[in-house]
């Protein structure tokens, strides 16, 4: 009778021992994966990133924007399709990122990014407008 109840305990003890041993290895892999996560701005993480891409990766853009797909905000490709890549649009959209706004793509507003400098915002816009498929 006693033996039958003991078996699951012995098994689970082995199970935990096995898990404990694997912990360290699992942790180091997830750290490296995290460091290389550029999935929002680049489908190919091995490509060197432009300055604008890096800045966007460090900011919150990816919570609302993706390159190809509409999320909360328009996709970067749609933005690139709407605005020709010239100085005037780069300047205008950089201001838009800093001040926020709504009404161009729908009723949902983009929050202001007052911590982003004008130069950094311009780098981001230059990257976004470079995505134009047309
Ligand atoms: C809270 C969600 C959210 C975040 C975060 C966000 N956006 Fe937006 N973004 C939007 C929405 C919504 C719009 C559409 C606004 C409109 O209709 O005018 C938009 C529009 C834009 C536009 C087009 C503006 C226009 O006038 O057509 C650009 C460029 C842009 N976002 C870049 C960025 C960048 C770069 C970041 C990161 C620094 C960022 N967004 C972060 C939601 C967001």
UniProtKB/TrEMBL annotation:
User: Which sites bind heme c?
Assistant: 61, 65, 110
Q: Name one Pfam family in it.
A: Cytochrom_C
Annotated stretches, region: Disordered: 28-48
InterPro entries the record matches: Cyt_c-like_dom, Cyt_c-like_dom_sf, Cyt_c_ID
Q: Where is the signal peptide?
A: 1-20
Keywords for this protein: Electron transport, Heme, Iron, Metal-binding, Signal, Transport
The chain positions of domain Cytochrome c read 47-132
* GO molecular function annotations of the record: electron transfer activity; heme binding; iron ion binding
PTMs per UniProt: Binds 1 heme c group covalently per subunit.
Identify the SUPFAM superfamilies for this entry: Cytochrome c (SSF46626)
From the Swiss-Prot or TrEMBL record, give the protein name.
Cytochrome c
Species classification? Bacteria, Pseudomonadati, Bacteroidota, Chitinophagia, Chitinophagales
